[in-house]
TrEMBL record:
Keywords noted in UniProt: Glycosyltransferase, Transferase
Tagged with keyword Translocase: no
A GO molecular-function descriptor: procollagen galactosyltransferase activity
Pfam family, one: Glyco_transf_25
Family as reported in the entry's similarity comment: Belongs to the glycosyltransferase 25 family.
Organism field: Caenorhabditis japonica
Protein name as annotated: Glycosyl transferase family 25 domain-containing protein
Coiled-coil ranges from the UniProt annotation: none
Superkingdom of origin organism: Eukaryota
């Protein structure tokens, strides 16, 4: 991932992930997380795993960083992401279409595993944007400052915790 960003001349920050197997070692500001009472994954019907809690906490810290640093637009990629042959072109086209249409946005998935057979609605005048249903594997996403504020506003750390890999 570093090589790609360096090659493209993209400014980036690497954030150390939160290890779900070391939740007892969390800093004090993250130890107060709470999982929704009775939460079960909608597809597998199982409780959240420690790795998913770690994943959520990693993304939660990113959202905090976006708000703290007033970052208007951020792209988040998982560290193990592998781009398809046209992946960077698609990201560029998403950005071009957003600029051309002046469409406001808060969060845009750049990669995920669709879980529903239902048809998603394509956004007019956008080559790669659609509405989404419940998904796994958030491989990457674009997040606006207002999107990060909306994700943090309900105080998700203390009210609920959901895997970012299955965010909707």
């Amino acid at each position: 991932m570093r090589k790609i960003f360096d090659l493209l001349g993209v400014e980036y920050t690497l954030l150390e992930a939160t290890d779900g197997q070391k939740l007892d070692e969390l800093p004090a500001d993250l130890k107060d997380y709470r999982i929704l009472d009775g939460y079960l994954d909608p597809i597998t019907k199982r409780p959240m795993k420690k790795g998913e809690i770690g994943c959520f906490l990693s993304h939660y810290r990113i959202w905090q960083d976006v708000v703290r640093n007033k970052l208007e637009k951020t792209i988040v990629f998982e560290d193990d992401l592998r781009f398809s042959h046209d992946g960077l072109t698609r990201v560029r086209e998403v950005l071009q279409d957003l600029e051309a249409t002046k469409k406001s946005w808060d969060l845009i998935y750049l990669g995920r595993k669709k879980q529903s057979d239902r048809e998603e609605l394509w956004i007019p005048m956008h080559r790669h944007l659609s509405t989404v249903e419940y998904s796994y594997w958030t491989l990457g996403y674009m997040l606006s400052l207002s999107g990060a504020q909306k994700l943090l506003n309900p105080d998700p750390l203390r009210r609920w915790c959901r895997s970012m890999s299955t965010y909707r």
